[in-house]
Hints:
Chain A has about 260 residues and is mainly alpha-helical. Chain A has helices spanning about 10-35, 45-50, 55-85, 95-105, 110-120, 120-125, 130-150, 155-165, 170-195, 200-205, 210-220, 225-245; strands spanning about 35, 40.
Amino acid sequence: MKLLSPRQLPLTIGLFLASLFVLFPIVSATEFSLREPAKNTHGFDNYIWFFTAEDFGKYLGISLGLSVFSAAILLVILVPTVIWLNLGGGRYRGLVEFVSLLPLVIPVVALAIGAQTALPGFAQTNESILGFMFAVLAMPYAYRTLDTGLRAIPLRTIVEAARGLGASWLRTILSVVIPVVRSTVASALFMTLALSLGEFTLTSLLHWDTFTTWVTTMSQSNILGAIALSMFSLIGVFVLLLLISVFIRPTKSNVVAEEN
Amino acid sequence: MTSTTLSLRGVSRRFKDTLALDALDLDVEQGELVALLGPSGCGKTTALRIVAGLDNPDAGQVLVGGKSVTHLAPNKRNMGMVFQSYSLFPNLTAAENVAFGLTMRNETKNFRLSRAQELLEMVGLPKHAKRFPHQLSGGQQQRVALARALAFEPDVLLLDEPLSALDAQVRANLRDEIRALQIKTGTTTIFVTHDQEEAMAMSDRVAVMNAGKIAQIARPDELYHNPASEFVAGFVGQMNRIPAAIDGDRARVLDSSVTFRPSWTQQPEDLVALVRPEALRLELAAADSDAGNATVVARAFLGPMSKVSMVLRDGTEVAAVIASADSTEIVSGSSVRVTVKDDQYLVVAA
């Protein structure tokens, strides 16, 4: 495609403006975060500032731990559910879809209050409550990612074929189902991780401290450092997305190639 | 090669309100290919799934070589199956797919590889071993699926409409290849289809199913020329339905007095004769004479034969298949005289 041909010119201009719109703030913010006003130069002082801040590792660790925890909860709940929906429980799909949509409909404030009053005491005494809540918040996205991915695969026929070829249930799951659904599960997993890492509202409402709330607090004392932190988070998410694309090879579709 | 007889004895299966299989009995001889043919919902796929162990009968038994496999899990039955939809494992290459059944039987790697290659050659895809399913066409995928089902020398081969997702040309080729391969391996085979042409062309015997029962099971010729019921007569091949009357031991159909066989009628009036298109004879009638009893709607040239569609005076639509050489002057709008050759037709009550 020739980007400068008359037909493509409007598209090219549009793309150029759009990329300016995205890139300009990022470049500016990066420049800003590298400023060192005291020395009137550019450097990594602001980055060093938050890296060496007392609680940086602690809160990053908490956030990472919570995202892994919530992703694990979702996988344990959703993967078997969605596989079951695609193998024979199809008539319950409407119900499951409805339930999975609830977190999008219910305001986070209501969720927070509900969690505070409904969850058992032991879950309220440490941050793990957030792991459960993050799982709830990420469910609509994770469910849809999984279901769309699995629907593209004739899972039921594949399972029946494996059984007919002599595979026990255990071997069917280990050597057929898991390899086939792996890439789909991986994308649902990263979706949940990214969402949990960036969650702020609920955490703040429930008065817990994670990386996001820590960033907010820190930014009040050092504006340059706060921008540096934001850039760090941005790059973190970018790396996550990169990981997704590395882990997930192009989905093996059943699109019929041309007859030859 | 191992081949075994397969029997279904009084197999019934009910889904909620519908009886999918009604005490079905079926015997497939060693090395035989039997087609289960019927309209959708007649129970043919249910029967196949029960044989495969993918569904359980409410009553009755499935026997392989005289031994009951009714309660065996599908992976213990040693049956190869090819599905209607593409069922290859998307994460495995063609060769790995073919070798899957051997892997499950703990065969050595060398044996698996050579056997997979051998089977891929058999289905005409020797150079596609390393391709993944998404790199293969629909016809190629079904060939690999067939190779996969045959690789471990199954006792019974089950084909569940394996050709219905393919286009016509590929379909016809693969149909002949499957049959050739089945004869070569001598594998006892059940073939489910709703395409009567496919069933007739490929099978040793065809079982026409209706409402969970076998309406008739016979060789294709027998089925075509001597159907056991009106349903079979109407379902297998084309059939004209022409008003008729009984006159002693003869029947009057289209001004012809002819013998009829076999008869399912008890009453002598309001009868319909079932007549094959090739049992009709056509003569051009002069436009101004009374000799004609039908008007031609269209003539379709099919090579050696042509199909002529007509409307009788009473509005009945009939079709005749006659030699193309004899029908060159018949065009749309021609007035023709249709008569019945004195064989190959049946009389039923309206």
